[in-house]
């Protein structure tokens, strides 16, 4: 293992989407205990510098592993299907229909209850997409299809922010 | 994991010798130094038994200076040359300083950081703070009759990069090796041992002499995260004194016009306030213009007079909770910091607001320094059993200026540090060999609403067609929350040279000049001091290398090991016979360089061990 090891190798985790979250947390803490610059405060500048590189690397991996969207995107990339969201806007068709309906619903939302309802729907959609991503990555090993779902999920997240903004607007 | 230190006879000092490491609370009104002795953190008193050092520095006629109580006493008679509350000026430009027309100082508007004109010449806030730090350093060295190994210094959670850097620079001027900067509320939480507790959310209510801070901390698996801070930088115990002083004067039918009379009335009020914390009523003695007048005052009256002040702190607490999106009952504990939290009405208000009794068993003046001392002791390697791991978060987002004065966020606030982020840039002109990057700190979208941190100029980019160069700029925030930047052209691998122009703060040249002038060095023979420091550093390096070899020497080939041993022997010889710092520093540097690869191997080994440990446990 070295600084170039991938996040899963670094954390000693199986290279898959489905993960035990408490285990990621405890691994993170264990690794930082070994590598944090504070542990080498009394051991000179060279050790400090290297500790800092490791510590930064561990934090980077932790951030990516604990967030399901980032973890999925990272797995797709490891399996040769980078997300490349800026240049690739292809979305699953069933999803396109769904998102048009959501946009309409948001525009028509007049009360906080309307928005709550939409938020609930988004949450369910999010859960469903994550489940699909899990199946595609862990069972069918279809990174390309998974990447498409990740792009869809990125859209859901962005749309979720719009919904939240609307909720705050209506709440006041 | 404890490294065994085994020394060969005559080759290293007693390996069990403790390193003198202290925690320093560099406060707005007063400062303290604390250390762990016999397993317990305690504040170190001066030769008159006082632990508080007023954060006041006075420059005298003869080039001397007074620091602490003497300076405090001279404040009204020699206001221009007696600097108090210098913490408010750290890392700040002239325009940043609120109410500067009310302050008696002669400000000098300098690029980078405001300076003060005194009879000893122009003084930067960094130099003035260094006087306070050096005083505490000597106090610690006198107490232990040994050189100080290093210190943990506390800063407010909301301090930005410039303010943190200024604090570190001040320590450097004072000849202090900074082991770590930590946030004041985090230090207070450590002092209470909250890091030993399970997970939870804690509030730290800090009412000092002149400032009020409220912080909400989240503690998860040894990670202290500051989730919200708030407060009022112009509200403190002094306001309670003033309110009571005005009332006492009114009762006595007196007026205080002269600065001396005002100070006397405030002193009488402060004495009465302190007594009222323990008793229901007191007779205050006012000595203003002539004979003393006695005015009785009850606690209820005092509380009524200051109810408005107390409720202002509660409003700030409410706002901090709202920012953190938390309800009061989600707070698992409240820590009180600052002398003004001794007032019963403050404790009562806090208890009522949070619906639980605050933690008060530690001295609220000392709690921050005590927590810093615990951390310092561990960082210095004295407490090998300690497993406190402080993973702080960055207090403010870092971004860079893009087209149209917009901010592109690079590292969002509350990200765990240390952290790094790489960003690719390209050139927009053929043959372009330089570019500038403007880094700002803050949460707003427009550059003008954020705080400018620094302008980095990248030079030495290989000339290429516009858009062909791929310059990867890496922004790194270290464990103290300080930013550094490196850049590399990806195609050619050429490292771009970076010139940093900090927007606030001091340049390396200024620091070097101040070091030369600084009292920390002037009073002793500079060369002797440099030599002594070089020898200490050499000793530190030798010890560290020895313990590394003992622990992990098996990672090295015989040749590699021989090379390191040779470098050690040569450093030992140079350090023993040196009359000047130069050769010692060079030999230390050579050993540092020569062990870099070994250090990398050890780190790998250590991480691998951590992993293996888990696998065994999983089976």
Please explain how this structure is put together.
The complex is a heterodimer of chains A (172) and B (619). Chain A has 172 residues and is an all-alpha fold. Chain A folds into 2 domains: 7-66, DnaJ domain (Helix Hairpins, Orthogonal Bundle), CATH 1.10.287.110; 93-171, Up-down Bundle (Monooxygenase). Helices cover 73% and strands 0% of the residues of chain A. Chain A has helices spanning 7-11, 21-35, 44-66, 68-78, 93-108, 112-138, 143-171. In chain A, α3 (44-66) crosses α4 (68-78), α4 (68-78) runs antiparallel to α7 and α5 (93-108) runs parallel beside α7 (143-171). The longest helix of chain A is centred in the last third of the chain and has 29 residues, at 143-171. The radius of gyration of chain A is 20 Å and the shape is elongated. The relative contact order of chain A is 0.12. The mean pLDDT of chain A is 87. With 619 residues, chain B is of the alpha+beta class. Chain B has 5 domains: 21-189 and 368-379, Nucleotidyltransferase, domain 5 (2-Layer Sandwich), CATH 3.30.420; 196-235 and 307-364, Nucleotidyltransferase, domain 5 (2-Layer Sandwich); 237-305, ATPase, substrate binding domain, subdomain 4 (Actin, Chain A, domain 4, Alpha-Beta Complex), CATH 3.90.640.10; 398-510, Substrate Binding Domain Of DNAk, Chain A, domain 1 (Sandwich), CATH 2.60.34.10; 524-615, Substrate Binding Domain Of Dnak, Chain:A, Domain 2 (Up-down Bundle). Chain B contains 15 helices and 26 strands. In chain B, the strands form 7 sheets. In chain B, strands 1, 2, 3, 4, 11 and 12 form a 6-stranded mixed β-sheet that branches. In chain B, strands 20-19-22-23-26 form a 5-stranded antiparallel β-sheet, with no helix packed on it. A 4-stranded mixed β-sheet of chain B has the order 15-14-13-18, with helices on both faces. In chain B, β2 (30-37) and β3 (40-43) form a beta hairpin. Chain B is globular and about 85 Å long.
